């Protein structure tokens, strides 16, 4: 058994049957190698490859420290310079050499910085214009919202004035047992007096237009002699009436109304607020609810303004 252990285990035996490389290059291998080297030398490198090789050489040169055998290093060493130190007495000075920036193109020195400055100005101008456009857009939408809000307030004001006028007329008819009482323009409440004035102006314009249409004879030249025996209608028919056709409409409108002018000068929202408050306090009526409440507290109404009813 011992003899068998001392013998080599055939399972662990290795056989090196792989062919070994020849120690000497054959003529075929030499010819192939020379052919490849010749092709590599004869191939003209591209511009990108030349620039890449030059970049590698430059980086390798910059990464290599100045050897102590260099004449320049020996001269600096006489003044106390050591490898890794900064030049001069300042300890915060730059230790690494200034990086080389390869200038590309044929433009003069400073052109790139000028281009960068112009581009920066263009970007700044574009940002300012975009900001201004955004502000103008915001102002435009804000103005549109404000205009829509004012138009809505004007419609609400007209509805409130019409409602107040109708309720006041009903109350006056009830007091006069169904009869209408003629009122002077200044006796009408200033909250809806403008409606009455507009009606009078509209009626004035209508009558004026009718008289302009129906008074052609009064504008014709008077050729016949005046006849005192004819009545006024005959004179007008014959064109003898020289009285101006608009005389019947003179002084029909009231004089200036300072109280109404002062009320109309108020903003629409303030006028609307006044008449809404009047309707609630006098008639217990809410314009936005469209209902007349019984109690003075108007229980169930959310508020005075339209926003309260949203």
From TrEMBL:
Q: Name one GO molecular function term.
A: nucleic acid binding
- Basic and acidic residues composition-biased segments: 9-24, 36-50, 130-173
Q: Which residues form the G-patch domain?
A: 68-114
Enumerate the InterPro entries for this protein.
DUF4187, G_patch_dom, GPATCH11
**What are the boundaries of the region Disordered?**
1-50, 130-182
A Pfam family recorded for this sequence = DUF4187
Tell me the domain of life: Eukaryota
A single Gene Ontology CC annotation of this entry is: kinetochore
The name this protein carries in UniProt is: G-patch-domain-containing protein
Natural source organism = Lentithecium fluviatile CBS 122367
């Amino acid at each position: 058994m011992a003899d068998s252990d001392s013998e080599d285990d055939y399972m662990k035996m290795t056989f090196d049957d792989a062919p070994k490389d020849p120690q000497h290059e054959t003529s075929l291998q030499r010819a192939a190698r020379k052919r490849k080297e010749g092709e590599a030398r004869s191939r003209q490198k591209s511009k990108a490859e030349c620039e890449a090789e030059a970049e590698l050489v430059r980086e390798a040169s910059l990464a290599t420290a100045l050897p102590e055998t260099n004449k320049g290093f020996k001269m600096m060493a006489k003044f106390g310079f050591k490898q890794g130190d900064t030049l001069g007495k300042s300890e915060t000075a730059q230790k690494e050499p200034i990086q080389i920036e390869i200038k590309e193109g044929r433009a003069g020195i400073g052109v790139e910085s000028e281009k960068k400055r112009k581009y920066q100005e263009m970007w700044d101008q574009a940002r300012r214009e975009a900001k201004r456009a955004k502000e103008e857009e915001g102002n435009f939408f804000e103005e549109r919202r404000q205009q829509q809000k004012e138009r809505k307030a004007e419609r609400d004001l007209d509805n409130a004035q019409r409602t107040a006028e109708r309720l006041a007329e009903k109350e006056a008819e009830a007091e006069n047992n169904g009869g209408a009482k003629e009122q002077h323009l200044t006796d009408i409440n200033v909250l809806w007096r403008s409606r009455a004035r507009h009606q009078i102006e509209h009626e004035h314009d209508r009558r004026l237009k009718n008289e302009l249409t129906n008074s052609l004879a009064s504008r014709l030249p008077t050729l016949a002699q005046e006849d005192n025996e004819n009545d006024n209608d005959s004179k007008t028919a014959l064109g003898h009436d020289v009285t101006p056709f608009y005389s019947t409409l003179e002084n029909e409108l009231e004089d200036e109304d300072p109280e109404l002018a002062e009320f109309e000068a108020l903003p629409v929202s303030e006028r609307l607020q006044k008449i809404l408050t009047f309707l609630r306090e006098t008639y217990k009526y809410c314009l936005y609810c469209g209902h007349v409440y019984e109690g003075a507290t108007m229980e169930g109404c959310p508020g005075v303004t339209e926003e309260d009813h949203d």
